[in-house]
């Protein structure tokens, strides 16, 4: 099954005001029509400002469904621009409800695997001048998601994102989001999340933490 890539975006750190502070962020990305090189921790030309919360093997590539753009434009009453969520890949057809943890995709000559949902941060609010966006992302589940790189390679807009392995026995991105943000998630649901070896360790640990409070 193949569906299209609406855009590829790259960004470098820039400084913005946050209250009385100046912070660095790479959430402002620009589209590119060039062939890009994909490596184990990301895409050449894309640099993260915060390596604690962004980047790394399990967050090598951030993707977001283009279908959600109209929802956010209506919600915010404004144009959200390109790379609205600071994503590297803006995708058409791959929604959170359709993509499973562990699904494997072909992207040009690279092979990538879904590793976790994107956890909303305050910088989304700064980008769109609306601090409630992280809360709204949790409520809707329109989070986008991350890929880890299984095989390095190159890709461009001429390529399609092709799912070559569907892990339907695993939860979808939407289901993982619902479990994490649901205060009434059951012990069984949380234990099932912890057992998914393809799920990023950060998310496994979050579910383990929830288990300790039960």
Automatic annotation (TrEMBL):
This is MOSC domain-containing protein. It holds the Pfam family MOSC. It comes from Alkalihalophilus lindianensis. It comes from the Bacteria. InterPro entries: Benzoxazolinone_Detox_Enz, MoCF_Sase_C, Pyrv_Knase-like_insert_dom_sf. Residues 30-164 form the MOSC domain.
